[in-house]
Every structure is written in structure tokens, then in C-alpha cells.
Amino acid sequence: MSEQETELREVDDHLDYGLSVVFIGFNPSLKSGEIGHHYANPRNRFWRILEGAGLTPHLYDPSEDRELLKLGYGFTNIVSRPTRGVEDITREEYAKGRLELHAKLKEYRPKVACFVGKGVYTEYSKKSKVNWGFQPEPLIPEMHEFVAPSSSGLVRMSLEEITDIYRHLQTFLSSEIV
Questions:
Q1: Cβ 154 vs Cβ 146: under 8 Å
Q2: What does the pLDDT average to over 19-48?
Q3: Number of folded domains in the chain?
Q4: pLDDT top residue among 4 and 141
Q5: What is the CATH number of the domain that holds 32?
Q6: pTM above 0.90, yes or no
Q7: Could you tell me which residue ranges the Uracil-DNA glycosylase-like domain spans (predicted)?
Q8: Confidence bin at 177 (pLDDT 50/70/90)
Q9: Chain-wide mean pLDDT for the chain?
Q10: Mind giving me the DSSP string for the chain?
């Protein structure tokens, strides 16, 4: 663990009962750990994806992440320690995080658990092969599991391709309101 990483703080979960979606990432970036907000790395496309998919009414700034609770959206991670990259997360951290995440989802029971990256979902579910979108056999009954591409700037998919996948989530949520 680098000296910089030991100085960073965990980014608080934003969870509540009755949420439509909880977005679940691998872990906070160094920038998120530095400023204390989710998806704060300037190269991360998360906030643009949400706006582009119609999930938010305007482009939010990472400093406004708590405001999304008002829209019915929460945030957590499978591992809470900020790191430079997912390769810095240990097997032990994943094992502990998997149990903690399952407990959080079971307690708060959002309509949809949205995993921001296939790797996040495979670490949580221990399923080796998954497709984008809603998963056929959720681990917690009566909760939908949605797998979306990572919003990291390192992902080779275009912003439009990623946004199209998130639009399926927006369509589902719109149909639930009716």
C-alpha cells in the first residue's frame, strides 16, 4: 500500500431505504478518496453516462453525489479502500467486501442493484460469465441485478455504447413508475 493510499479516507456510502437504484463500483479512486465523493476522477465518465441515459435531469458534479438520494439513487462499493486501480485490491478485501455488500443490499433492498462493471458483479456473485443488463437469477430474491459497463476512462467502449446500455436501466425505471 502506498503512502498516499494510507492517507486517503473511505468514501461514505449513500444508502437509504426505498431507493430505486444502488450503483456499486469496485472501489473509490485515489481522487474520490482525496475529496470524499463517488466517481470523482476527472477521466471517469459516470456522471455524463447518467445524464446521457436520461437517469438524471442534468449533469451532476461528483460533489453533488449525495443529492442523487433525492432521485432514488444510492452509492456503495464492493471494496471501500481507495486505490490507484482494481489490481491493488486483495482477494481478502474482495471476500470481506462481498459479504458486506450482500448485507447492505439485503438490508436496504433497492429495486435495482446496478453493478458498474462486469468485474464488480463477478466478484460479488462468483458467476464467471455474465452479460450486460439484467441478470436472470439475482442473489437476493425480488431485487433486480443490472450489470453495466464500468465508467472508467480506461474502458475501451465508446461513451455512446456505454450510455446505450444504461438506457435499458432508465427504460426499466420509467416503466416501474407507470
A1: no
A2: 95
A3: 1
A4: 141
A5: 3.40.470.10
A6: yes
A7: 16-158
A8: low
A9: 93
A10: --HHHHHPPPPPPB--TT-SEEEEES--BHHHHHHT-TT--TT--HHHHHHHTTSSSSPPPGGGGGGGGGGTEEEEESS-S-BSSGGG--HHHHHHHHHHHHHHHHHH--SEEEEESHHHHHHHH--S---SEE-SS-SSTT-EEEEE----TT--S-HHHHHHHHHHHHHHHHHHH-
Span 65-69, average pLDDT: 97
Alpha-carbon span 47 to 45, nearest angstrom:
6
Cell matching residue 141? 430474491
Domain enclosing residue 47, as ranges: 3-177
Answer whether 113's CB lies under 8 Å from 24's CB: yes
Rounded distance, CA 161 to CA 123, Å? Answer: 23
Long-range contacts of 94-97 (CB under 8 A, 24+ apart): 94/123, 97/123
* Residue 6 identity (one-letter amino acid): T
